[in-house]
Design brief:
The structure is a homodimer. Chain A is an alpha/beta fold and about 350 residues long. Chain A is built from 9 helices and 14 strands. Chain A folds into 2 domains: about 5-130 and about 330-340, 3-Layer(aba) Sandwich (Rossmann fold); about 135-325, Dihydrodipicolinate Reductase, domain 2, CATH 3.30.360.10. The interface between A and B is large, with 61 and 62 residues. Chains A, B: It catalyses: L-aspartate 4-semialdehyde + phosphate + NADP(+) = 4-phospho-L-aspartate + NADPH + H(+).
């Protein structure tokens, strides 16, 4: 780690992702000179733990970014739209974990294992991709480099923590209610701000995020657009179906990818095994494959069920699991911040 | 319904599927002259309810099939292998719900909405396909007839009831334990007879059934092989990834299908709306799509999230939900039996 010490603001410090960012800064020995946890007026005055001390949360006003070197944002898109320019104006570099700037051509969209070189092109804001995109591109990067591909079809199995800490509480409360025969309250899933809410306990909801004109959801279109941008390759065609399942932490993905050249499976496994940020856990005959419940709290992207497609011998099927709050959000953001400090 | 009355044996009458077969026979006013519930010696002597009466379960011996016209089997593959020939020898027609005879070229594999005409070709045994195959082919049949297709890529979200009543109890017990911070006991999932068992509560397990030589699971290969056989079209290429999720009843499937001719989406929706056994629930803008929790107990196959693929304009994406114990097992078997009686 570099020795330069920086002042770090964490916006949304009391949320599900903010909490993981603080843990990550601590665990990765990030060179924090001063930590400034920020949140809405409602949460200001609370405290968060950092390196064994209680730090008071401040209200996220424009002036709260005075003197900040790096600001990690995860308080929702509209707040990012309003406050990121203010933070940049005051000299901070913003690593934004929302959808606000991801497709802005002036904003690098970065997964360090894939396109760390884009970080230097920032104009004050660097975007952290969507959780479901991040884990997929980390798993696909070694295949892209060694074999090339232009076609991906993915179906996701997404944890409720993608919708925040309240959604995690909702799943648990609904599960308790269902098991004791009580009425199930539905207030958040699938999308808090939409009209209709459905039970997620013992259910599967084929909607993450709002609907788009073309019948896909925003979550699905994020995977389509962000994958092209991160690889810097508009020829990559992604089809996504995003589904919420009753899992607290950890997204899983069933990924079909058509490679551009012939391969043998051991070559694929070697590429995955050697890839930065990837852990290969792949032996169906020994019942070895990653599962979200056991990967919660881990930073890597786990890949299993690697198999040659039965129809197209150039295609591969993969099962990709990662903690959506960590590599899917907090860890990736802090990794970007680390690269910033190194530069 | 025809007026001919028949003697019906239900083998596995005390199991999760057997129970649903009895309900189905009752609800569909199947012309049962005599019901003969059969099970292992362990369950013999218990009673089951049928048309308001308690009927004693008999031990499933070869002679128990004397005088039986139609025998509905769902007590596991090895029992079918042993007893189906005995039942046939005694004059019964067997509708077998296990994997024992599905790929036998002398045994029709039937989903009435797709290939009812195959029933007449039986030599005593008719096979009921795998649950995840049945709901997919019912949804795909109208597309096959109107547009043709030869390529399907499917990822499943399968309920634990596919592994029987004990697996349903396991999911509930594990959920209770997790929520109260107690130790989670793992005895059944993902596959009872295998060495390793994993929690399914708040988890996703990318394994249904045992592993095959090619790295796919048997459940995945069932979808590949059975789809070809049911459509009678070896050119259909299916890629399947089968995943167990913490749902009690109702399988869901994310289906990508490449049609052979151009289409407009309304034409597709009309074909689905008019198809036998299909209920279209499709309007993402109104948050209308099927979900397994609300479809438990219903006989139809529900289809939503119908959308043109963003990459291949000839491809469609669908979300298909059905109760795996009903259309995926009991209902399909009883529908076959109805056709047998009509013939």
């Amino acid at each position: 780690m570099p020795s330069q010490q920086v002042t770090v603001a964490v916006l949304g410090a009391t949320g599900a992702v903010g909490e993981q960012i603080l843990k990550n800064l601590e665990n990765r020995s990030f060179p924090v000179k001063e930590l400034r946890p920020l949140a809405s007026a409602r949460s200001a005055g609370k405290t968060v733990s950092f390196r064994g001390e209680e730090v008071t949360v401040l209200e996220a006003t424009p002036d709260a970014f005075e003197g900040v070197d790096i600001a990690l944002f995860s308080a929702g898109g509209s707040i990012s739209e309003k406050l990121a320019p203010e933070a940049v104006k005051r000299g901070a570099v913003v690593v934004d974990n929302t959808n606000a700037f991801r497709m802005d051509p002036d904003v690098p969209l970065v997964v360090p294992e894939v396109n760390a070189h884009e970080i230097k092109n920032h104009h004050g804001i660097i975007a952290n991709p969507n959780c479901s995109t991040i884990q997929m591109v980390v798993a696909l990067k070694p295949l892209y480099d060694r074999f090339g591909f232009d076609r991906v079809i993915v179906s996701t199995y997404q944890a409720v923590s993608g919708s925040g800490a309240q959604a995690m509480e909702e799943l648990q409360a609904q599960s308790r209610a269902y098991l004791s025969g009580e009425e199930i309250k539905t207030e958040i899933m699938p999308v808090g701000k939409l009209d209709k809410h459905y039970p997620i306990a013992f259910n599967a909801i084929p909607q993450c995020d709002v609907a788009q004109e073309n019948g896909f959801t925003l979550e699905e279109m994020k995977m389509v657009r962000e994958t092209k941008k991160i690889f810097g390759d508009e020829s990559i065609g992604v089809t996504a179906t995003c589904v919420r399942v009753p899992v607290l932490r950890g997204h899983s993905e069933s990924v079909y990818v058509e490679l551009k050249r012939d391969f043998d499976l051991e070559e694929v496994r070697t590429a995955l095994r050697e890839a930065e940020g990837v852990v290969l856990e792949d032996d169906i005959h020994q019942q070895l494959y990653p599962m979200p419940l056991e990967k919660a709290g881990q930073d890597e992207v786990f890949v299993g069920r690697v198999r040659r497609d039965t129809v197209n011998p150039r295609a591969l099927n993969l099962w990709v699991v990662s903690d959506n709050l960590l590599k899917g959000a907090a860890t990736n953001a802090v990794q970007i911040a680390e690269k910033l400090v190194q530069q």
